[in-house]
Amino acid sequence: MVFGIVLVLLLPLTAQAAGADIVPDEPQSDEAAEPQVPEAIRLAREYIQALTERNYNTLNRFYSRETEFEDKTAGKKVNGATDILTFLRRIHVYTLAYSFEPDHIFHSGSLVVLIGTYRYRSRGDLFGKPGQTIELTIPGVTTLELDMEEKRIKKHLDLLDYDAMRDQLASQ
Questions:
Q1: I need a surface site. Which of 32, 87, 111, 126 has the fewest CB within 10 A?
Q2: 75 is in which domain, residue-wise?
Q3: In percent, how much of the chain has pLDDT > 70?
Q4: Chain centre distance of CA 133
Q5: How distant is the alpha carbon of residue 110 from its chain centre?
């Protein structure tokens, strides 16, 4: 009888010890472990944030003399930090608010693809509607070729749905 009681008491300890090799250790922290964001995606997000916040000092750090900025749909291409910043400042004069809401972000090495929606609130005189405030929601794809060593943008390429923009402008 004593043997039976000892066996019953030892079985849970044996099962627990056997399972210790199978069950991974739980993190000691109360905080849930966050998935690691790849460096290329983190850099792309920082860049897009600087762009939409019109933070020219930060943007200047992202660009070099070799950087290309192209809006393929509009047929506009600008090269070099100085010309890109001049181009952006000129456009942003009319922009009251500007954001990008990504639906998908993925990367292959140093190439990052952002698929989402650009939202603009702009002065109407840019679109031939002086005195009005224009609000636009433009779906698009932005691809960024990154220089991961220098933490810079090699190429920014936009493909935006300007048909959606024209439809929205017609109704405003």
A1: 32
A2: 38-115+139-160
A3: 80
A4: 27
A5: 14
User: Quick check: is 129 in a domain?
Assistant: no
Q: For residue 79, what are the β-bridge partners?
A: 68
CA dist 51 and 63 (Å) reads 11
Q: What are phi and psi of 63, to 5 degrees?
A: -100, 155
The DSSP secondary structure of the chain, one letter per residue, reads: -HHHHHHHHHHHHHHHHHHTTTSPPPPSSSSPPPPPPPHHHHHHHHHHHHHHTT-HHHHHHH--TT-EEEETTTTEEEESHHHHHHHHHHHHTTEEEEEEEEEEEEEETTEEEEEEEEEEEEEGGGGT-TT-EEEEEEEEEEEEEEETTTTEEEEEEEEE-HHHHHHHHHT-
Report which residue type is found at 85.
L
User: What CATH code is carried by the domain that includes residue 106?
Assistant: 3.10.450.50
The two structure tokens encoding residue 91: 């456009």
Domain tally for the chain? 1
Query: For the segment 18-77, what is each residue's pLDDT rounded down to a tens digit?
Result: 444 555 555 555 555 567 999 999 999 999 999 999 999 999 999 999 999 999 998 999
Residue 105 forms part of a structural domain: yes
